[in-house]
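User: I'm putting together a small comparison set for a docking exercise, and I want a reference complex before I start. The sequence is below, and the ligand is beta-D-galactopyranose. Could you produce the 3D structure with the ligand included, as structure tokens?
Assistant: Of course. I'll restate your input first, then give the structure tokens for the complex.
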Amino acid sequence: MKRTLGTCYYPEHWPEEMWEADARRMAETGLTWVRIGEFAWSRLEPAPGDLQFDWLDRAIDTLGQAGLKVVLGTPTATPPRWMIDRHPDMVAVDANGHPRKFGSRRHYCFSHEGFREESDRIVRLIAERYGRNPHVAAWQTDNEYGCHDTVISYSGAARRGFRIWLQNRYGSIEALNRAWGNVFWSMDYASFDEIDLPNLTVTEPNPSHTLAFRRFSSDQVAVFNKRQVDIIRAHSDAPISHNYMGRITEFDHFKVGDDLEIATWDSYPLGFLEDRVGADAGHQRTYMRQGDPDFQAFHHDLYRAVGKGRWWVMEQQPGPVNWAPYNPAPLPGMMRLWAWEAYAHGAEAVCYFRWRQAPFAQEQMHAGMLRPDNADAPALIEARKVADELRKAPDVSAPQAPVALLFDYDADFAWATQPHGAGLSYFQCVFDTYKALRKLGLSVDILRGETRDFTGYKIVAAPGLIYMPQDLKQALAEADADVVLGPRSAARNADMVIPVPLPPDMPGLELAVSRVESLRPDMPMPLKGGGAFVGYREELETAAETILELETGEPAVIRQENLTYVGGWGDEHALKRIYEQLCEEAGIGTTELSGGVRCRDTDDLRIWVNYGADAAETPAGRIEAAGVLFEPK
Ligand code: GAL
């Protein structure tokens, strides 16, 4: 498949006289895609029922006439002001019980039936009008579900929906009381109507209650999305996508992705480095103009899985952004590197956000491909270069990797419910494993937690899966691959209760985690021979072979047949030791990478990128700072 480029454009922000020249310039730059429409509701329907679609007809036509393909977004992330008068209780409510007001975006609660019907209505109007438009080649539902902390809402609508959801799940209130252990602190309920949302309690609510509410909230996103998808699909054959946001884990992206053809995500490497990567200040300084060397790749691999192979970057950082604590400019070359790295991981398209910097409103400090005065900005120049390279480049594809890493949103909900130590999160636990694998030069496939067929993988890493259904345990125990579990594997049952026999209770693994402890981050527990457990550690009662020991002499990592169990949160060195040894035994070649150099294998190339600010050596030769190197295999 030929890889493509695109941009995000807001025709409603600019005088109509500019559209044609913009469209021509996009095409001349080598762009294929232009995403529009996702925030335009107040201009499509300025007053209830007053439909003004003519301008959008002309915008789509102008872009299409220039040879561009349109991704049409549904505008539901920005309901117009008049809608709040129609549905005053449609806004989400925060944990303190305060309504989240109009004046920015995403001001709706996923559970509000009145807003869901408004969403159906506007999506139907758009789908009917543009479903057969030859220029509309793909769709996007809404915009970044969950961004700005908008999945969980403590509204009246959510409370009503949650009670029904609980009734469906548990059947009887006695079953719920039993499953949650509500005998504790006299929390028993006499009926589902007594159950409130788990906020504003005196001290922490029952973790079973919190986890159930997180699951319910996640399901509400999938339900909302599916309503849009069903309407669009009735009128159009074009693929439907959603643009997920990096490190948003409050809803199950795989479940939303089940109803879509393409997964896309919004990649802001410098914005993420400051507040989503979990990096210390030194790392942030080193990569301040490049981004973390693994964070983008992790999401590329994640969304390849969410999209069942079809995925894009829908928004690529084009320069300084406006929303991180600090907003530096990228090193020259990075906007090209980010695009090539995405293609190396199988992206079909990379679209830069946004076409022209807006001189007004919230994002006036956010760069675009053009400056506000219409001159070329650095992103346009680098995109042009990528477009030239794409014309000459062979097709790239992402074949199955030797190593798989499981990622399960439900496990993230459970860790968030009960982190057990400050700063411990499932995402970070999985991401640390991913980084260790990448620093060994490995290509990695991320698999959803529901996967049961591991054919073709030599190593399957499944850290932190706090609840593991029996069939998953069985499938992993029977897999041909070496399987790495722990910490916290199968530590809770489906309702957030400690199971007996004690975890992980894996077939084929004689192991019980007899006690767990969380540790101050500055008090690691060293391993014999190097590396340490940091922040979290488990005591292992086992008959299996110990392969790494704590300096105290207790077992840290154990192994029986194909199952390895890591009884703590390994630091970089510990994880390297564990996976290096497994790779060696499994016959997987590794290349130790340092600094910002990383690689990814395609069918016939190894594509190297250098996130470092200095040139570096690779086995394939020298790579410039912010450089990309194509090594034939
Ligand atoms: C994304 C969002 C865009 C824009 C961008 C700014 O999260 O989808 O609409 O706000 O961030 O970086």
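The longest strand covers residues 532-542. The mean pLDDT is 97.
User: Thanks, that's exactly what I needed.
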